Fold these 4 entries.
Entry 1:
Amino acid sequence: MSIFVNASTRLVVQGITGRDGSFHSKQMIAYGTNVVAGVTPGKGGQVFEGKVPVFDTVANAVRETGANTSVIYVPPMLAAGAIAEAADAGVSLIVCITEGVPVIDMTRVMPFVREKGARLIGPNCPGLITPGVAKVGIIPGPICLPGRVGLVSRSGTLTYEVVNQLTRNGIGQSTCVGIGGDPIIGTNFIDVLAAFEADPDTDAIVMMGEIGGTDEQKAAEFVSRHVTKPVVGFIAGQTAPPGRRMGHAGAIVSGSSGTAAEKIAAFKAAGYGIMERPADVVGLIKQRLKK
Amino acid sequence: MNLHEYQARELLKAAGVPMFDGGVAATPAEAEAIAARLGGTVVVKAQVHAGGRGKAGGVKLAATPAEARDHASRILGMTIKGLIVQKVLVVPAAEIASESYVGLIMDRESQRPLFMVSPAGGIDIEEVAAKTPEKIHRLAVDPRYGLLGHQALGLALTLYKNFDQVKTAARIMEQLYRVFVANGASLAEINPLATTPDGKVIALDAKISIDDNELDRRADLAALRDETAEAPSEVEARRANLTFIKLEGNVGCVVNGAGLAMATMDLVKYYGGEPANFLDIGGSSNPEKVVNALKIITADPAVKVILFNIFGGITRTDDVANGIVTATRQFKVEVPIVIRLTGTNEQEAVKILQGVGMKALNDMDEAVKQAVALAKEAK
């Protein structure tokens, strides 16, 4: 078992003929993901890599192939439209990799996604992977190992760093989810923590947060009330100056709010194992799984 | 991206928000001419992206055009929180009966534009929020419908009793909302929204920040960027498509990915060093980006060592290695370089670096420790 993606994932790739979309589609197929369709308006009827049919619309792709999950690699100004299209076509899980989506677009598309009953992950995220089963997005397959630790993170390469630490030490993962670094995202820490708590094949959870906003604090409160599995956490950006956007649009300390210190304090209060540095994940997880 | 006050005023004025006529001056003579045109007492205000302008001496009253000129000559060129004042705004000085706060922010929690209004305006709204939160009224606007008439009226009623003032304030809320949405703002505030002794409602000061992601489709807004208000290295980095923020330390950092870049800075601090910068070369692995990154970092004389931390995913580590080699051929890098790379095409990368006598480490902690030690030796 796992969360969100598994053996019954049937994936449609929006933007499959683009530079990023085609590169990562090949990688996803090579990993064993069931990529059933691609969408590029105007290129309907083409076949990608000799086996994946391309459609003009997501609705056509869903009707013809039964796709239930979508991954989006379209340019930022088209991303919100692509999300809405997927939700309207009845796709239940939408993963938006695109970085640089205007936030005002996200305020308009989020109510639509909810109305349609879909789950959005991202935007500006690396996607997710259930090691050995399926990957949706751009997390490198070779650094992952099937196992029983769930990981949720706001960043990309920092996630890879921690996954790599776990894998090198023989600790496998159930699912790794990158929720994205933007101020408005479809799936937050609490959604993923709740899913890991309910997943019988996840024994412990790693949560990688960063400065900006209050999602980590709220997640910590949720953990103290509703999560029985051990959680270890990290906050990036302890040395970040206030008022500056640290790469991710959402990674900004506004006034005195959203600092690493307040987030770490919330983690401690909720009984998290605190990672002072990424490499601490191994020792903390081993120690907590023994208990 | 933060707009200057005078730029924010122009957007609001175009939307119909009542404001005094004013003018922007880059020289004392221009300030004098604006003051003469306006007549009466004026305020000369420094245009910099920093709070506390008044306390720093950047906001002055002038009774005559000559006095406006004198103030402008002192304020222009003044440094406020490290930023040099290039322009002043000259506006009529108002007699004020009351000061309110009207702000709109992009709220992460409700995922909507959120109004915050308070009859306690004029001062730091964060302080009001912390000490007397009951004095701030909040309303999250559903972007599908926009700010509805009764909602605007409800907000305005928290500010004024006189119904003419209430109606004017409600209209201002609607205008502010339209400016916020039409320009993809992350913040738009009027502070203070004032009343004059004869009962007029008027916006005296305005602040607008634009979502950086909006700028790619809005050349008109991107053109409002004032590069003189930023560190030159950050301007250069943006032109090279790098995300760069200068810090005070001496360990220069080149990292792929924002989260890993922050974690690398934190680890430098953890091992007793101080990072000189935040630098994210992004996901694509163009060797040219690495060359530009090295140029920008080595231009900072405080940097004593350069630390690469590259986790190859989409980024190919051999591209990064090629970039390092190209850069060191193009110009002499005077400080030691510590390289950590792992992931996609790692073996090729190691070979490329070995070919020019450079070493690559595999472990992040090891690399950071080495870099911190080298920075300390160099002191």
Entry 2:
Amino acid sequence: MSHLISAIFQPGFFSNGPVHTAMIIGGGAAVVSACIGVFTIIRGQSFAGHALADVSSAGGAASFLLGVNPMFGFLGMAVLAASAMELIGVSRARERDLVTGIVLGAGLGLTALLLYFDVTSHSTTGAATSVMFGSMFGVPASIIPAALIIALAVILLVIIIYRPLLLSSLDSTLAAVQGINVRLTGLLHLLMLSLAVTLSAMTIGAILSTALLIGPAAAALRLTKRAGTAICLAALIGVGATWGGILLAYDSYNWTPGHGWPVSFFIVSIIFVVYLLTGLRGQRGRFAIPAANSLVRL
Amino acid sequence: MFSSFMVNSWIVATMVAIVAGVTGLFVIIRGNTFAAHTLPLSTFPGAAAAKLIGVNELWGLLTFAVLGVVGISQLGRHQRNDVATALTLMTLLGLGTLFLSLSNEYSQGVYALLFGQVLGVSRGEIAPVALISVVAVGLIILLFRPLLLNSISPDLGTARGISNRRVELLFLAILGLATAMALPVVGALLVFSLMLGPASTARLLTDQPLRALSLCVGIALLTVWAALALSYTTNWPVGFFVGGLAALSYGLGRGWAWVRAARAIHEVAAGR
């Protein structure tokens, strides 16, 4: 038994500083992303979620260039992009996707340029990888307090505006009739989305943060129709996948000597496997989802 | 700028622009923006995998393009479209990080694949790219009417006996082909910019499908040529110019549409 345990948890796993930091920040990112992800799916804004994350990579690249804390870079750019999308504000879904795409393209172009400057001025070739695919074990411990405050603030905000947010996500016309400021809840959702994306961009990387945002929430919404339960389930799946991924990545240093496998790969794989498994759960789950909008209950 | 090693780049970039322009118009009309962004990103692990096992890059790209198309359409059966697309994207990208990390070319590889590398086009790469472009454009011309009908009104298409699912799958396949060939030049992250920018601008300028198509190709060519020239002179990445110029052309298109609308209102008001 103890052999098995020491085979699963390689020596040093629990006493390793970077692993601690990764587990705390990764866990926080997973919980927040899962919460927001459920609303994002119900609102049909997966693309916006992905786009915000991608554009925030320009901020990450800029912070590498300036030598400041990457969290503020990601955060600044994500908020900027969210406001740009909100300002151009187009109500028709198709046109909205188009504007999102154009903003995304311009933002990614900027990332390309900033990363190029990173490489030429600092001769650090690692910037592209750590910005786009994350550097879980490279997150400085000093970020923990700020990251946890952001995470708590988002969760608190979700609890406070839970009902209006959910109602306006499910049916914006009905919400408007009930006197809910739909525009404001939309804006708050985008803001929380950028905060969630910031946290996960630092851990599993800007272009992969979609995995933490959409994956667990999609799996959870296949299991239950209740939004509240779905949020809790999604948070569980997200945290489980993140911690499992960290553990496997730590272990992988022993599989291919001297060369670990990327954490992001493990996290994404676990989430995808969980998603596939949730599909096995009989007819009820299967038919509930295509029309998630109309079936999710308050 | 037109020295011998750049000539190949100009030829390939021109073909890429034509294909991106043609497919881009349908991406816009069909509202497939997210898929157009996802396919290139889920195709790029193919290049890394090909490097890892030592086969031609194009095979890897095509294989993963197929995986992406199958993923989006299969997951889409039980799931909302955008969620299915996001799931496909994250899974294939996750594989990409693994391949890149195992192939020990992590950093340089990532940058070139994501943001494009026009200077490294060899003579041998021209023929396959040309072949794929002919196939992709040929398919679109062949399917022009059903695609258009199905894109504008799926119900009308169904009434005429066109299967929506089949058209969607076919279009995704064409998109995958276009992506696989364009990726090494423009980079995974900005292929879709090249599809979106010119097409959205063209659609703002005209309502006529054929005129929009030629405008679209024209703007795409201008974008790519300008990006290539600027990138050559400044040494900055092509992707930056492609993304920026695409956004610029869309902005100009919206400005033009706004001016036209304002003038129309003015004329109506003056007529009274």
Entry 3:
Amino acid sequence: MLRRSNGKGWNGRSRVFILLIVATVYLVGIFVWGITMNPVKYGVNYSEKLVSPCIKHLFGTDFMGRDMFYRSIKGLSNSIRIGLIASVISSIVALILGIVAAIWGGWIDKVINWCVDLCMGLPHLVLLILISFMMGKGVRGITVAVALTHWPSLTRIVRAEVMQVRNSQYVQAAYKMGKTKVQVAVTHILPHVLPAYLIGLVLLFPHAIMHESAVTFLGFGLPAEMPAIGVILAESMNYIVTGKWWLAFFPGILLLMAVLLFDGIGESLKKLWNPGSGNE
Amino acid sequence: MQLKAENVSFQYGENMPWILKDINFAVESGERVGIIGPSGYGKSTLSKIMAGYYKPTSGKITLDGESLPQKGFCPVQMIFQHPELSVNPRWKMEKILNECWKVDEDTKHAFGIEKDWMGRWPNELSGGELQRFCIARVLSPETKFLICDEITTMLDVITQAQIWKVLLEVSDKSNLGMLVVTHNMALAEKVCTRMIDITKWNK
């Protein structure tokens, strides 16, 4: 189990730490850069419409002459913010409901399962549009809508995970040692569910961004002047057949990198917390 | 104190065979009762019932005339056959050891628990080392009865002797009552003050 270090380079723990730090710095960097960016950088400039990538415009410009590099960074930053808030809220709801359903059981379990079935039975997009519209569209509407519609499937996963450990000997023994259900849930069950939860969170994030762009595309989400990866990709579809590949390519790559790095963060945390690999 | 089984019967499901039928016996404080018998006679089931993990289908378990507490610390504690199943694999040993009470230095020393084991995870210790943690963590001052279900079966003879020596000292000192379930006749004769052959109850 304890693999010996080969003497060269870093051990597994430091490699994982470095990956974790690089990924976090990249994501936080884009996020902060986007928030503090001057809107003039991606302003309209009709004298430079649809310029292909060059030194001045790294990612080219779009049909209104907006610089795609700055617009993509700003857009990704907006998307990360919405995706992150929505998926964190959603996954915390899922975590709490899943654990509560599995530990307390009985009628609580039944009610939570009904809610899950109800939410899964309705088409996602309809619910998203309704909630977003009710909350007055915009960033707030879309965030609340995505947060409120993405918990059911993760709730099921968490519930199933808890079911596996709740009857184990050490949980039973903990009850006999005078621990309450809440104590057992927090100290014994939570560490077990965390890996599944983290993966769920990471998978929710791109999902949230996609839904955000879908609702925006339909006109119930973000305003058109606000750059977001979803808006940019939707717009670029009109131009891709005419050979303006850079409009979709670079923002797409940026989104892909963000999602992969999120995945990397999830994996690294999992490795550090897992008894099988944490001390390597 | 007295831990008593009154007319205890048990079956795992409604139409399943009876594992135990109308069992009456008692363990006094300071007594070590051995339960011996071949596999499949309900020794482990009986110990789980006595420790309150299972509810008997009929009859009851009493501690000084009162039924076992459902909430809070149970004065009857059980040690299991498989230590690797009775510790949380995601906890470090220090947390596991002190889950029940703050284990004092004397107890740690007596069981030969070493300092550098504290920062490890359970999968980095052997079964025998883990079992010492499992025993030490339930020996709190509030524990009055110990149910030991084959607790040293998987250990080598020297480790068995070490663990039992400490356990006997502790139980004499704090006047614990013990229920010792084992296959090993020689061990039972050595540690128990009284023996019950489970085959006499269940035919």
Entry 4:
Amino acid sequence: MTKPRVAIFDLACCEGCQLQIVNMEDDLLNLLTVIDPVEWREAMSDQSTIYDVAIIEGSITRQADEIKVMEIRQRATYVVALGACATMGGVNKLKNNFAIHDVKKTVYGEAANMPHLDTFTVKALNEVIEVDFEVHGCPIDADELVHVVKCLLSGQTPSAPTHPVCVECKMAENCCRYEYDELCLGPLTRAGCDARCPANGFWCFGCRGFLPDANFTAAREMAAEHGKSLEDLESKLALFGSK
Amino acid sequence: MSIKKVGSAEFKGWVQSLIKKHTVYGVQAKEDRFAFDVLDAPEDLRLDYDVTILPPKKYIQPQKEVLLTFDENGVFESVMNEESFLILGVHPYDMVAISQMDKVFTKDNRDEHYMAYRERATIIVSDVQTASKDVFAGCMGTSTGEECSGHDVLLTLLADGSSLLEAKTEKGEALLDLIPNAAEPHEGDLEARSAIWESNRKELRKHELHVAPSDLPELLERSYDHPVWNEKSELCYACGSCNLVCPTCYCFNVQDDFNWDLKSGTRSRCWDSCMVSSFAKVAGDHDFRPLAAARYRHRYYRKGKYVPDMIGEIACVGCGRCITSCTAKIANPAEVYNCLLEKV
Amino acid sequence: MTITQEVSTKVKDIYLPEPATVLDSRLLTEAEIYLRFKFDDPKPHDYKPGQFYSVTIPGIGEAPISISSSLTRCEENTFEMVVRKVGNVTNALHNLVYGDKVGIRGPFGTTFPVDTAMKGRDLVFICGGIGLVPVRSAIHHVLDNRQDYGDISILVGTRTPADRLFVSECEEWSKRDDVNFLETVDVAIARKPIWTGPVGVITTLLPRLNLDPAKTTTIVCGPPIMYRFVLMELRKLQLPNDQIYLSLERRMKCGVGKCGHCQINGKYACQEGAVFKYSDIESTPEAI
């Protein structure tokens, strides 16, 4: 079997998801025995023009990004969106709640009109190109990436969990954040993270995106039940740009 | 089988000797709740607990369990638990649940993976010292050490701080032998224990069930189209919390994982939940139970009718965990079954 | 119950697949592949029409697949299947070629009652789409024991002419004068393959039957949507519900009545089905 040529790209992001890959330790070495990395700015200097799998981290915030991902799409057999910025827009998408002019002014001040600071409405990868697989999370869970890679290498279609974080949270025997009257987004959010935040005493921030059949009616009622306002809930729901 | 009476210091010494001899899982504090975990020191044991987040089932049917391995030629081999262990402080209702699992997993097709854990488990049941806020075991006939079976030792804390230890099996007898000079209980001690049982039958009723458990199958038989299923499930997150904390839920999913050679690997099973949306969906996406209301109803039918039809026991032991863990507050079995009694 | 302290070292693991080898594979349509297997263990393996095996591709997973062959015309220890591409396991089954290994558990489930309730009766087989696959096993069995049964009608409905399964066998059955063979397709707009037969859903074939409700037993298998309509037509023909047998598909993970996925209300499809007598499930709301 020839090893698939894999390229990793980044757009607007903190590169934390790629850092998760670098931090895979033993699994990284194993990964390198089955794939052929041909382009990865964070870890190597080579560049390539054709690849079997393109992994893209980050969200699209500029015209140039759009052109870049369209080019990548043309060269890659599979495109994998890596992390919340790529799958949903991520925290970057908060920008879309304000006028672009105000955003630039606030962030860049006097320099706002410099051409290299050009920026527009934030988009997730799938708003611009067809994405074959999504690895959710902020940051991603390295084990899930391993799962996706193994699926692709063995001819399977990987699929993300279709049940909420509560499933994994209960299995981990965490104390439910609602017992502390916190607004946890676990019941609405796609699992796959082993409920890492609740396991460490935080509510779920919803970084893996909401399930297609998430019960927002219940979320609103339960927010009220726990003494939280609708604004509290809405602001939490907006954090990662999930729909 | 013998009954011993031990003082608190003696009891502590006994737990210490158990820890020395066995892998002991005991109840301990976890944040503001309780959980079974590996017990390193007698001081960590909290038999005054109200209820654990997960039932002790997790040691007999683990959350995730490797069933098989396969090698690079695709040849499968069974993986069976070989470790013996001791669970210390199981509440009677959880013991009833374990006995039910024993029936389910041995009926017709005997599940050796389950039995490999079950047969290597030594179980010490502890009568409840603190009632949890949602327990209704008193309504289900599962509230005392008198009402469960299948355990090796029954432990009851008496008002004077001493404990009664009753061996139920040979294995249990051997554990009691670890206390060299344990006293025989007096008549009065046994009466005190009976009084505790009597009191627990009344105390462990934080919710009232207005139907005799044995009448539940018949009640459900005529309640299939009751409006309660739709009404309650409108707020259901389909998050599976009620399933996952339930001591009598045992449905599982099966999954293969490759090793890095992409040839060899493992097949494992993990807890599944009939409340989550994908539970009855087949490849090709046809869903045989697509509505949350139907899944919600299915769960109450499993507890009150389907499993009872199979094993002859009501598959709800009244631990109340589902009530506590349901974020949407729709999962109170007593309340749901009571609703069914109302005329529509 | 009592738990024995002794743990036997030789236990039967109900989850352990046994190896079998692919003898033959060929595409019947774009989405359906025919596969023939032989168990590696020479000890006799018995199965009955209507049963299924759980088939494993190591690392990809396991899926319940209906047996399509009958031991009346199969070499010892071999069996046949037809698999539609719908997920990872079935996709992998499509890649199998001669000599490949799979894992098998089973056979599981109930059977079409070829040796009991169907004996001496007039038979009507109603097969929609891939429903022909398990029913073929029963058809082979009764045709190979033709003298044991009365009149035999085989009704086959397929989406389009290109989706037809076992085309040459259907041709054979249609030529037999001891079989009443009727076939239809839902739509026939494509130019190839040429279709000159009836067009319409499978229920349109039923009024053409001239059956005696007192003497007839019916076998029905098809996609979930089909059953309700076929059962309506059978009621019109006054067929009693205890003479109708249905094979129902469900999600299955274990095949041994444990995992819970296949439950139809209180019934485990892997144990009490997949073949059900209609009178046993007519008041089971989740069945049809």
